[in-house]
Fold each of these.
Amino acid sequence: MPSPAAYLRKSKDATTKAEHLDRLLATVRRHGHNGDTVIYDDWARSGDQRKLASRKAWRELCGAIERGEHDVVFMNDLDRGGRSLEEWLRFIRIAQEHRVRVIAGETDYSAPENKDRLIFEAWLAERELDAAKRRAAATIRMRQGRGDVLGQPPYGYRLAKQDGRVVLLEDPDHPLHPILDAMRDAQGNTAEVVRLLNDRAIPSRYGKSWSPPALRRVLRRLGAAPRARARRTRSGRLSMPSALSKLVRCHCGTTMTATDSRNELYCYMGTRLGLARHGRYVMRQTPVLEFAKAEAAHLDIPYDKVTLGVETSQRREALEQQRERLGWAVTDGLLSRDAAKARAEEIDHELKNLEEAEQLVDIPAVDWTAEPASLNSVLHALWEAIDLDAEMRPVRALWRVPEWRRP
C-alpha cells in the first residue's frame, strides 16, 4: 500500500534542522498520517539545478514515486523542493503520471488548477537563487580587492579581522606542532602518523578520530603533501589524474568520472541504472578536450588587474544618487533638460565602466601541454562545468568568465 513521503531540504542552516523537521511532520499529521511516513533527507544540499547530482534523497524520492511507493509528498515550502523551474516541472509531471499529490506549504501543486501558481513561484525561487549568486560573487570580489583571506582556514590556523581585513592567525586549539612531531617520530609513514595522533589524543578539526585521508587533506593544504599521483586500481590498471576531473557533467546531471589511464569518462549513475534506463554513459575524453580548446581559443585575457574594494561600491551609490537628483534639478530650474540629459549619459557611462571593472577576473592562460592536474585547475577557473547531451556530445560550457570576455 502506498505510504506518504516527506522531503526535507535546506542548503545552509545547521542549527534549525529539528525545527524544520517538526514543522514538516506537523503538516503530515494535519493531513491524517501518523507513523508510516518515509522521510527523504537532503539537509545541507543546494536547490540549484546544477547541483542536482548531490541531492541523493531527491533522486530516491523520484524513483520511489515511479515505483508506486507513495501517494502523497509533503514539503515545508515549494522552494524546499528546489530552486529550479525546469526540475519542478519535471517532478510534477512524474507525480501527475503516477497520481501522487505534492503538498508544499499547504498547497497541492500537482492539482491542474495550481499549475500557474507552480510556474510563478518556482520561477521566483529560481530568480532568488540567481540573485543570491550575484550578491555572493560581488561580495567575493569586494573581499578579494580588500585583501581578505577567503575560504576555510587550514588546520592550525583561524580567521581573524585585523586592520579591516580578514587574515590568518595560528589557532591555539589546534596547534600544528603535535602533527609535525608525529610525522618526525613516524618518519613520514602515514598509517603510523595516524596511529600516533589517535594514541596521543590530538584533536582533529571536527573532533573525530584521525584517518589517512583526513591527515593527507591537512598536509596538502599546508603544502606538506604531494598532489595526486598515479596509483594502481583494484584491477591493476594505472590510474592517473585527469585534466577533466570533476568538470564534465552527464546528461542526467551527474558529474562524470575521468580516467586518464583509459582516456574515458563515465557516469556512475549509468553503471547503476544500466544502458536501457539511463542511455549512454561512457565516452572518450578527446571530444571534450577538443570542445574545450575551441571554446577557449579566442578568450580576451586581461593582463591588467583592477583593484576592487569598498570605494567601488561607494562610488556607484553616489552616481545613482546623482542620477536620481537630476530630475529634481530640472524641476527646480537648476539645470536645463539638455544639460541634465548630458550629465545622465556621463553617469550611465561611468556606471557601465564600474560594472565592467567589477567583472574583471584574472583569467589564466591555457597551456594544453601542462600536466593534467595543473591543466585541470586552469579549466576549473574558466568553467563550472561542461554539459553533455544524450548522445554524449559536449553541447554547453558553463562559464565563470564574464560574457564580454568570451569568444
Note: The first helix runs from residue 17 to 30.
Amino acid sequence: MMRINLAFRSLATSLATALTIFVVLQASGVTAAKEYTLESGDVIRVTVYDNPDLTTTARVNQAGKISVPLIGEVRVGESSPEQAAIRIADGLKKGGFIANPQVNVFVERYRSPTVSILGEVQKAGKYPVRDPTGEDIRTVSDLLAMSGGLTANAADFMTLIKKGTDKTSGYKIDLIALLQRGDMSQNLEIVEGDVLYVPRMALFYIYGEVQRPGSFRLEREMTLMQALAVGGGLTPRGTQRGIEVRRRNGDGTVNTLKVKMSDLLQPEDVVFVKESIF
C-alpha cells in the first residue's frame, strides 16, 4: 500500500519533469535564434548617447516609419532594432547634427499577435506568437514551455479554446499522453487569439478511521482501495465494512453510497471510514 501511495504522490513531479525533458529534446534540434524585425504597431524607444534631448518613444506606423527629432520620418519597418539604430544614426550624421552619433533602439512593447495561457502554470498570461528571442509559438508544448510549465496543483489535462469559438467548449488535451508518453496527436497547433486553460487538479476527501485524513489529488481512474492507500490505510479501529462515499449531485444534493474496493471515485467525493463496533 505504501508503494501505491508514493506513486500517486509523485505524479505532479513526474508531469513537471516530463515537460522539462520534452522541451529539452525539442530544443536540441533548434538552430540559432531568429533576429526580431520591427513591424507596424511596435512601440520603440530611441536614445542617442550624450544627447538626452533626442530620446523619443514612438509607435511604428502603418507605413513602417517613426518620427525622430531633427531628421523627421525614418523607415524602421522590416528592420532589426540594430539596423533601425544605424539608419537613425546615418540620418543624424548626414544632416550635420551629430558627428559620430551612438544610437540605441529598444522595443518597449511588441505588436506581435498573442496567445494566452491561464490556470495552473508557473507564469500565466499573454505571449507573443513571434518570440523575438527564439522560435515562434506554434504548438501547445511551445506555449507550455514559455509559461514555465505546470504547477504542482495542475490537473492531468487542459483545454484549448480556439479563437472565435464558444468559451464554454474547447479541445481537451491529455497531459499524461503528451508529456509522459510523447503522444504528438495531443500537441495541437495554436494561432493568434487561442487560449489554453490548465485547471486545478481534482480532489477527494477522506475522513474517519484512516491514518492520514484530509484532501488529496484524485488520480485518473482511482479506486476506493487506492484512495485508502493514499490516506495511509485504516487505523486499528477502522473497518472496510463501514466505508461510505458521499457524492454531490448536479443539483447540489448529496447521496451516501455503499461502494466496493474496486469502485472508481469521482471528483469531490468524500470517503468516510467508520469505527468497528467489535
Note: Residues 1-9, 16-33 have pLDDT under 50 and may be disordered.
Amino acid sequence: MNAKEPHPRPTVFHVTHWKAGSQWVSSVLKYAAPRRVIQPITNVQGLLGGPVRQGSIYTPVYASYSQFRAFVPHDPAHRTFFVIRDPRDTLISWYFSLMYSHESEWPSVRRSRDELRGLSKSDGLALMIGKHMQELSRIQEEWIAAGAAIFRYEDLVADEQKTFKQIFEFCRLGTADLHRRLIVFRHNFKVQTWRRFWREDRLSHLRKGVVGDWQNHFDDRLKELYKAQHGETLLRAGYEKDDCW
C-alpha cells in the first residue's frame, strides 16, 4: 500500500466526558470490532498509554481538545467523534456516583464522598457546580469550538439504532446492518436494567440514564448558580436557547 494512501481501516477515537454514556458506547464498539479496540490507560506514555496504533479504535478517551491534540496530531484519515451530554444531567449522575456507586479505593472519590455526605443534596450540588463542573464546561466548549463531529447522549437515548448507525457510518466500521442492530439491541440501556424497569437505584452505576433528570433535583438557587457559572456553555452546546429555564 502506498504510504500516502489512507489506511483501509481508519483509526477511530471515541472521545467524551464522564457520565455521558461512555461505557455504553464503548461496549457497542467493542462488540462491533473486538480485535481493533484499545481501552486507553493514561500513564507515563501519555493519554493513550502508548503511541497511536493505526487502524485501532480507542474507546473511551476522556480529554479536552487541547489535551487530546497534545498526543494525537490532526490527521484527516482519523475518525474522531465526541459524545456530549447535557451537563446538568451529567452533574446529577456524577453526584450520585460520587455519593454511592463509584469505587471508594480512589483517594479523590473518598475525599469527595466524605465532603458531600456532610452536606445536604442542594448544598452538595452547589459545591459541585462551583468546584467540579469547571473542567467539564471547558471540555465541552473546546470540542464544540474545534468543530468536531459531535453525537449527543440524548439522541442515543431517544433513538439508539438511528444514532449508532450514524456513529458506525462516520467511523466507517463496515458492519452489516443486521449485525449492528443486534449489537445495539443487546446493549440497550433498558435491557441492561430491565429488572428495575427504569426505577432509580442509587447504588448502581447505571442509576437512571433519564434525559432531563436534573429538573427533579435543581431548586431555584441551583438554577441561578448554574446559569451564572456555566450558562454560556449550555447555550454553546445547544441545550438552551436563552437563560429563561
Note: The chain has two domains: 12-86+137-192, 87-134+197-237.
